[in-house]
Amino acid sequence: MFTDEIATLRRLGFRHVSLTPRTTSMRWAHIELTPLLARSTDELPLVHHCQVLLQALNFATVLSTALMIWKGLGVICNTESPIVVVLSESMEPAIQRGDLLFLTMPRKAPLKLGDITVYKIPGTPIPIVHRVIEVHDHRRNTTEQWILTKGDNNMADDVDLYNGIKYLQRSHIVGKVQGYVPYVGYVTIMMNDFPKLKYALLAILGGAVLLHREG
Fold first, then answer.
1. Which protein family is it in (predicted)?
2. Which residues form the catalytic set?
3. Which domain holds residue 139?
């Protein structure tokens, strides 16, 4: 008795199905059921933790992809910083504060008068964007040069910024400016001036990425 009903309930996913006799002749029976709902409720915390872990992995994937793109762009452009932001007004009116610059570093072609370069002196934290106003080429090595720079908006050259050396060498040059996008870099300037804004923007971007992935 009830054999077919018990088999059907087990196929539907009920884990515990038993008969409890009400009389010695088993004319009546009680079916004890444990539905799948109880199991699903127990597994809810595990599902939530898996979703959080998956979202964190998605965010880490986005960050690692951006880093790989940055490194790849640096290899293609032959410079450690293919994109920089102008932080001062020393190159106005040609280049404005907040402009986003795109750099390449010529492997063999020498730098010329009038080139706008980004250079960095060891011991100084921030690269400088200035124009080449004087070049001395090596007699034998065409890639070896001594370079003097100056900001278009400055009265004097950059010798006082060189920390005791008279000329820059190519090893000091981060890259040559090939193009720019006006004022886009102001976002970076604002984040440097207001650190809390930087963390808020990162949180917003991270949340947007996670929501997009989840959707």
1. Belongs to the peptidase S26B family.
2. 90, 130, 158
3. 83-182
Cα distance between residue 185 and residue 57, in whole Å: 29
The answer to whether residue 207 is domain-embedded is no
Task: Note whether 104 and 141 are same-domain residues.
Answer: yes
- What is the tens place of the pLDDT at every residue in 32-64? 445 544 555 555 566 666 777 777 777 778 778
Integer Rg of the chain from CA: 34
As given in the structure block, the two tokens for residue 95 are 């280049």
Question: Cis omega (within 30 of 0) on the bond before 93?
Answer: yes
Query: pTM score, two decimals?
Result: 0.66
